[in-house]
């Protein structure tokens, strides 16, 4: 039963209050609000009442988003592009969550967003890093790019954040955690004695992820430089060692490292892909992988399994003794 009429901006404010009280991930809430701001800009100076919006209004907005041209940020010039189907799907998900809240609170009678079929995102090829790729990225952490000054020989300097940046690469690679999960880790979530870490993932789901021997040593070495770190402090901190680092900062860092040593397409989620595929190649079980990654279903895990299995079959064809010996 509908209670009273509220505007779109009031609905967004109420939704945010409710979701913060439910301890929704800061990153998820931020993504939702990015979608809400797009909807607000669509109506320009208007602030329509939520119960006055129709399926056609939302369908027209979603269609407009599909035709929208965006200009990538950054110093390097890049061509304008259309929003990806994945971005459109994220907008649809955010709006559906807003209307679901509004139905539950009695501000609208039905979730009109569900009447609009969301786009099916493109299935991009999953290309894991090679051992050589990761070796190059780790080596890129030690020194800056080479530079020259008038009258001086070309030189480079050591990077103050080398150990931290190597740890970021190793942690993403050896645990498969999402970059947002790494950013939200606090010192108290680490358990080096038992070589494990407590991760808080999507939907406020908690899971325990094991740490390998090499990664445990890297974590211990990093923490020896922060002997006064308090349990509530972020695990990974900025260059000054004062506050946590954002997922956007990590994304920029990894891209710069890749550009420096010629490794293309370096982004945080690719380390998650690499962890999953390598885990299965080395005999890990799909169900255990699903739990380690924090997947809610076997869909993505099974996709990794298909890639790993095709790799194994291809390697066998290349390495088959009978084929190679031509007996």
Description of the structure:
The chain has 13 helices and five strands. The chain has 327 residues and is mostly helical. It has a three-stranded antiparallel beta sheet. Strand 3 and strand 4 (196-200) form a beta hairpin.
Set down the secondary structure blueprint.
Blueprint: H1 8-21, H2 26-42, H3 55-67, E1 69-70, E2 81-82, H4 85-105, H5 131-140, H6 162-175, H7 179-184, E3 190-191, E4 196-200, E5 206-210, H8 213-224, H9 247-261, H10 268-281, H11 286-293, H12 299-319, H13 321-325
Antiparallel strand pairs: 1-2, 3-4, 4-5
Helix pairs in contact: 1-2, 2-4, 6-8, 6-10, 10-12, 11-12
Strand order of the biggest β-sheet: 3-4-5
What CATH calls the topology of the largest domain is: hpI Integrase, Chain A
Q: Provide the gyration radius in Å.
A: 24 Å
Query: Main beta sheet: strand number and arrangement?
Result: 3 strands, antiparallel
- Rough shape? globular
Order of helices and strands: HHHEEHHHHEEEHHHHHH
The overall pLDDT, averaged over residues, is 86
**Which class best fits the helix and strand makeup?**
mainly alpha
Helicity range = 40-55%
Note the total helix count.
13
Question: How does CATH name the architecture of the largest domain?
Answer: Orthogonal Bundle
Overall number of domains: 2
CATH superfamily of the largest domain: Intergrase catalytic core
**Name of the level-1 CATH class of the largest domain:** Mainly Alpha
Percent of residues in β-strands: under 5%
Query: Cα distance, first to last residue?
Result: 79 Å
- Low-confidence parts lasting 5 or more residues at pLDDT below 50? none
DSSP summary, beta strand count: 5
